[in-house]
């Protein structure tokens, strides 16, 4: 099964990016084979509708769960329409997040964790 | 004649100038407050509101039973307001609409090959109109949290009566709501203050207005504060300084109570009339 972790860098040792739509990299991990691919987020500097586009990208990649710091309302709507689990509040390294996920340590969220434009303000509350 | 009052920097005196100008003129006058995000001219004009109307824009609604999830609508949307999730592994597709991102261009419904997108109204605010004496007053109030100001501004401007002297109190800045407000006007007054911030934003506003090819001039408010750099800039750029309003505590005190200069200090009425005549001359140049 494929999951995606938003990341500040392109390796498993990188820190989880607190933003979904405007994260630096998407790291897509196959939890069965541990194969990991880092994808540069081409939407990160978009003017608007970035969460939606990143959400569509997740659907395109066939991801079943997204692990990130925060998602806004439009991204959440897109991800849930695509049947993707959304797990927010994830911090630390990408590697640790994957391990914790595999052990069933996360529960999918039921809604957006932040308002619109959280990411375009730099991901600071 | 249609006169717009803009500024670049906020808080320089657009409403001070536009309300006093409106109240100083004889004959039929229309005052439009197009700062629909923060309208305030009514506080000074105190019009009797006679008509209130809802203003809406058209946003798409998809009939998913007929949608083939071809993504054409998503491709033509410049504002990413439509997301199509194609059908996958037997699961049906989905077409998501994000109405708050939609600029109501209509491309999606026009170009949908299945003709399964219809346009439905989405309310963005209200328009109110009324009058006080010889001044007809119109303004818009954008819903709280709403970002789509230009369609409401265009609705307010839809009330323009070219037989009257029209004054438009525009919002500050140099972005879409300002462009929507000053577009098509015969003359634009740029109100500024002689401070570094005032000058910085005045220069930005001048750049915009020159591109729009609208005749314009400058009113310097609180003209005896700050420095001489604004006047030097205007001289260098050959921009007319139409009027100077000095900084006076009495003017500020009256303003804080909702009293315009024209009413609180009637001796200024002739200054505002002079301003109007200068504008007429400049606009006809």
Radius of gyration of chain B: 23 Å
SS element count, helices of chain A: 3
Strand proportion of chain B, as a percent range, falls in: 25-35%
SSE class of chain A:
alpha/beta
> Mean pLDDT across all residues of chain B, rounded?
95
Q: Low-confidence spans of chain B: pLDDT under 50, at least 5 residues?
A: none
Query: In whole angstroms, how far apart are the ends of chain A?
Result: 33 Å
From the spread of the alpha carbons, the general shape of chain A counts as globular
Protein architecture, described:
The complex is a heterodimer of chains A (125) and B (285). Helix content of chain A is 23%, strand content 18%. Chain A is α/β, with parallel strands linked by helices and 125 residues long. In chain A, strand 2 (25-30) and strand 3 (36-40) form a beta hairpin. In chain A, helix 1 (50-60) runs parallel beside helix 2. In chain B, the strands form 2 sheets. Chain B has a 9-stranded mixed beta sheet, sandwiched between helices. A two-stranded antiparallel sheet of chain B has the order 4-5. Chain B is α/β, with parallel strands linked by helices and 285 residues long.
């Amino acid at each position: 099964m494929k999951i995606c972790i938003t990341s500040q860098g392109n390796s498993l040792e990188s820190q989880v990016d607190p933003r979904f739509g405007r994260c630096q990299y998407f790291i897509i991990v196959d939890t069965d084979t541990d194969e990991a691919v880092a994808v540069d987020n081409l939407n990160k500097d978009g003017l608007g509708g970035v969460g939606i586009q990143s959400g569509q990208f997740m659907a395109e990649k066939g991801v079943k769960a997204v692990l990130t710091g925060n998602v806004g309302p439009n991204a959440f709507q897109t991800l849930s329409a695509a049947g993707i689990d959304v797990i927010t509040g994830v911090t630390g390294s990408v590697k640790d997040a994957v391990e914790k996920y595999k052990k069933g340590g996360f529960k999918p969220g039921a809604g957006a964790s932040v308002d619109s434009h959280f990411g375009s303000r730099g991901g600071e509350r | 004649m249609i006169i717009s009052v803009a500024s670049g920097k906020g808080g320089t005196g657009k409403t001070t100038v536009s309300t006093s100008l409106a109240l100083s003129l004889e004959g039929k006058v229309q005052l439009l407050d197009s700062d629909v995000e923060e309208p305030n001219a009514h506080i000074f004009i105190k019009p009797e509101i006679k008509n209130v109307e809802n203003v809406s824009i058209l946003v798409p609604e998809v009939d998913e039973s007929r949608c083939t999830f071809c993504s054409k609508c998503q491709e033509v949307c410049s504002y990413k307001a439509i997301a199509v999730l194609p059908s996958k592994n037997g699961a049906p597709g989905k077409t998501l609409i994000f109405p708050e991102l939609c600029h109501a261009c209509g491309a999606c419904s026009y170009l949908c090959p299945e003709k399964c997108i219809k346009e439905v109204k989405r309310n963005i605010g209200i328009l109110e109109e009324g009058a006080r004496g010889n001044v007809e007053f119109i303004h818009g109030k954008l819903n709280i949290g709403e970002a789509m100001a230009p369609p409401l501004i265009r609705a307010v401007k839809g009330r323009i009566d070219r037989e009257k002297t029209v004054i438009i109190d525009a919002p500050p800045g140099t972005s879409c709501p300002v462009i929507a407000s000053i577009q098509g006007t015969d003359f634009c007054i740029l109100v500024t203050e002689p401070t570094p911030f005032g000058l910085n934003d005045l220069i930005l506003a001048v750049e915009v207005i020159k591109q729009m090819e609208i005749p314009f001039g400058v009113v310097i408010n609180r003209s005896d504060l700050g420095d001489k750099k604004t006047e030097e800039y205007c001289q260098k750029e050959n921009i007319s300084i139409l009027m100077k309003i000095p900084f006076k505590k009495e003017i500020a005190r009256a303003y804080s109570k909702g009293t315009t200069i024209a009413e609180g200090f009637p001796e200024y009425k002739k200054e505002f009339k002079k301003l109007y005549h200068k504008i007429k001359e400049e606009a006809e140049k």
